[in-house]
Amino acid sequence: MFAEACGHARRVAVLASVEAVLGWDEQTMLPRAAAGHRADQAAALAAIVHRLRTDAAQGERLHGLAAGPLATGGSPEQQATIRLLRRDFEKQARLPPRLVEELARTGVGAQQAWVAARAGSSWKMLEPWLDRMFALKREQADCQRPDLDRYDSLMDDYEPGARWRDVVGRFEPLRAAIVPLVQACRESSTQPDDRILTSATYPIDAQRPFVRDVAVRIGFDFDRGRLDTTAHPFCTTLGPDDCRITTRWNERSLPTALYGVLHEAGHGLYEQGLRRDWYGLPPGETASLGIHESQSRLWENMVGRSTSFWEWCLPLARAAFPAALGDADVATVHEALMVVRPSFIRVEADEVTYNLHVMMRFDLERAVVQGDLAVADLPAAWNDRFEKDFGMRPPDDAHGVLQDIHWSAGLVGYFPTYTLGNIYAAQLMAAARRRFSGLDDDFAAGRFQALLAWLREEVHAAGRMLESDPLVERATGSPVQADWLVQSLWERYGAAYGL
Amino acid sequence: MFAEACGHARRVAVLASVEAVLGWDEQTMLPRAAAGHRADQAAALAAIVHRLRTDAAQGERLHGLAAGPLATGGSPEQQATIRLLRRDFEKQARLPPRLVEELARTGVGAQQAWVAARAGSSWKMLEPWLDRMFALKREQADCQRPDLDRYDSLMDDYEPGARWRDVVGRFEPLRAAIVPLVQACRESSTQPDDRILTSATYPIDAQRPFVRDVAVRIGFDFDRGRLDTTAHPFCTTLGPDDCRITTRWNERSLPTALYGVLHEAGHGLYEQGLRRDWYGLPPGETASLGIHESQSRLWENMVGRSTSFWEWCLPLARAAFPAALGDADVATVHEALMVVRPSFIRVEADEVTYNLHVMMRFDLERAVVQGDLAVADLPAAWNDRFEKDFGMRPPDDAHGVLQDIHWSAGLVGYFPTYTLGNIYAAQLMAAARRRFSGLDDDFAAGRFQALLAWLREEVHAAGRMLESDPLVERATGSPVQADWLVQSLWERYGAAYGL
Question: Which of A277, B27, B91, B94 has the maximal Cβ count within 10 Å?
Answer without folding.
Answer: B27
